[in-house]
Protein 1
Amino acid sequence: MTDRPGKAAIVEKPRTERVAEALEAEGVYDPSRRIEAYDADRVALPVTRRPTEIDVEAVVALELSVRERGLADVLRSRGVPEHVVEAAPSSWAVIGNVVLVDFGDVSVEGTLDRDARETVGEALLEVHGDADTVLARGGISGTRRDPAGEVVAGSGDTETVHTEHGIEYALDLSETMFSPGNKAERARMGDVVSTGERVFDMFAGIGYFSLPMARAGASVTAAEIDPTSHRRLVENARRNGVTGNVHALLGDCRTVETTADRVVMGYYEAHEYLGTALDALVSGGIVHLHEATPDAMFPDRPLGRLRDAAAAAGRTVDVFDARRVKSHSAGVVHGVVDAHIE
Ligand SMILES: C[S@@+](CC[C@H](N)C(=O)[O-])C[C@H]1O[C@@H](n2cnc3c(N)ncnc32)[C@H](O)[C@@H]1O
């Protein structure tokens, strides 16, 4: 946030709201800057000139911080019709230099049409000065979790480097998914692992979990079936200086023979691969089983699946955590079950 000099009207705190309204009505209120405390009893309201229609204690030259303009402010300042402002998305993700936004299905009545999406996209580029492309998020489909998406504004360059918890993830958002909602889980995987631990990341993607774990000192066997994601996984291991800790394999995790103290199963259909996970896991090892589960069935369904698979392998399960990572879709949660397998 930058500061710039300007004028401020000083008033007693209890008068703040009333004076602000009067300043606005007179057309002297400066909405581009913030109201701030002046001292213990008084506030400073940003004004463009001395008001004449309401009494204020003083008008002083003061640097008040500049208010970051939100999407609605930018749209309104561009004269965009109010129905577009109202229908514009209220949240989005910034992945590297790309703004990822969900406009909903364009064919559904009430959602913004293509022209309006472009208008909103351009306003988003103004809100996020460092971003250069706005990508409308489509669905994510198929075994390889391919994202569908459409560039609505900006240069159209969807290749970027996203930095999170000090880790750089290079990716092209038009070809590889990146789930902002999994941020805490990515951090958690780096926190729970110990130096020298052997990890099997069965669905590694571009290194979402493998990289934080490798950086924490684990020795990670990272399987990825999709060549594009695998290539990024290798690139990202290099980029983050952890090539020695990431053994990146291109192919189906079911063909990997490895021994692990911990298995990460970051894929919504992961339960179908529990046999492979249990084969790799040492006694007393830990499994993190992800699943997209109807809300009412979490955590019972993944727990049941884990217990069934363990029983079939003659092993026992001690579940020590089950948590909701994010909402997956209406009524469906992305959850994770953590368990020791004896
Ligand atoms: C959901 S994505 C990765 C999600 C990631 N863990 C996250 O939290 O954002 C799942 C990945 O598993 C990969 N995959 C699917 N089936 C696989 C298999 N049988 N063996 C290895 N990788 C697989 C997909 O290509 C995809 O990159």
Protein 2
Amino acid sequence: MRAFHVGDILVSSFIEREGPWRAPTVMFPTADKATALAHLKKMSPEVYDAAQDLLVITYQSFVVRTPKHNILIDTCVGDHKPLRGPALEYSKQPWLDGFAAHGLQFEDIDYVFCTHLHVDHCGWNTRLINGKWVPTFPNATYIFGKKEYEAWEAMALEEERNERRSVVWEDSCLPVVEAGQAKLVEADFELEDGIWLTPAFGHSPGQVCVNFRSKSDHAIFTGDMMHHALQCVEPDWSTCFCPSPEEAAESRKRILASVADTDTIVIPAHFPGQTAGYVDSAGDAWRWRTMEFDNGIPTREGGKQTMPV
Ligand SMILES: [Zn+2]
């Protein structure tokens, strides 16, 4: 993703993995293939691998540099994590290289926000050092939604049969709390003027979006409120990972309606390429417009994934 400014804030990202990932009808169990293909035909080829019938999904972390803080949003899958499954056992070197390419060291991060605590959003919260999980960012305060954290804690403690999910909480979240570096907050938490959360429950029990306002600019990191531009035009399509698909759809529609036809920059976790973009209303639904640049300035004109109405 090409870096851009939100007022005085610089936003960039680095990638852990990218490329074709899941078929549309696997990712969205209520989708029908013909409808999905009709929509995808109108979108940029970068969002869908037609030859393999796979949606293109990026796993990435975002770096937000405000005049006062270095902030990391979502920490991908992480390294040396047990029981994550073969699909997530790819090399994690690109993430380390990407982080270093920002000229940052782990010590430089002031805040880590996890939009939610799924396996691909909290992995680099910790590293394995001498057989022990320790916070990767020693000087950071980690912001976890209280509702989200407590839900996974309860699942970890009560559903021992659900071993894989429990492990994520145990190795990537609990050690941060035990180190005294976690701040469990409400879903409308405000860190300071211009940095605040809004709820996006449904994809996970307590998912939140992270908002930044600087000067007159507004950007919202939406986590997994949507995984693909298809969900703008078909907002009822929740993913196979959503425990509450209807609540996820309600959250999606509320957020899409709130940003539609505004200059709010929307940054979904998994969109490939430029990732960031804008939302336009289109009849009863919406369409996605990827950010483009004009003389280095983000512009909402001429986006590549425009869906003609
Ligand atoms: Zn995700």
